[in-house]
Model the fold of this input.
Amino acid sequence: MTYEPPRVPAQRAADEGCAVELDLRVEVRPGLTLAVPARLRYRAADPYAVVLDSHTDLATPISWVFARELLAAGLHAPAGLGSVTVRPGGGEHPGAVLITLTGEGGSVVLRAPAELVRAFLARTESLVPAGRERTRLDLDGLLRRLRGGGAASPGP
Done:
């Protein structure tokens, strides 16, 4: 008879997440396109959101936070209202996803490779499947913090 150690389920780190580096394209004017170093980030502790850091070559990147679901929906059809919209490239930009960011100073359309965005979203799904985000939230801790009763504890 051989000894087999007990099976231990995989443990999740409190800060588990994923990221992908991108060179986004910005059309400054017809015929002139610039590369913008960027990164998409996701943390399981904030399961509904993705972060787009642009100008990652600067000391302080410009960060936009928006819904993971918005990014996923925008791969297939125009999605979003307000400051962030996402849509498939099609036409002139097949194989791209277009992310429009609108702020006080105007709008910019960033073109990202759809395959990298899909791969990033697949990695986020392996951390927290769509529809299971609420299982990663510590709502009791958040309520305690909002009521002034202490810091929220990290999620499960």
About this structure: Residues 16 and 44 are 6 Å apart (CA to CA). The chain has three helices and seven strands.
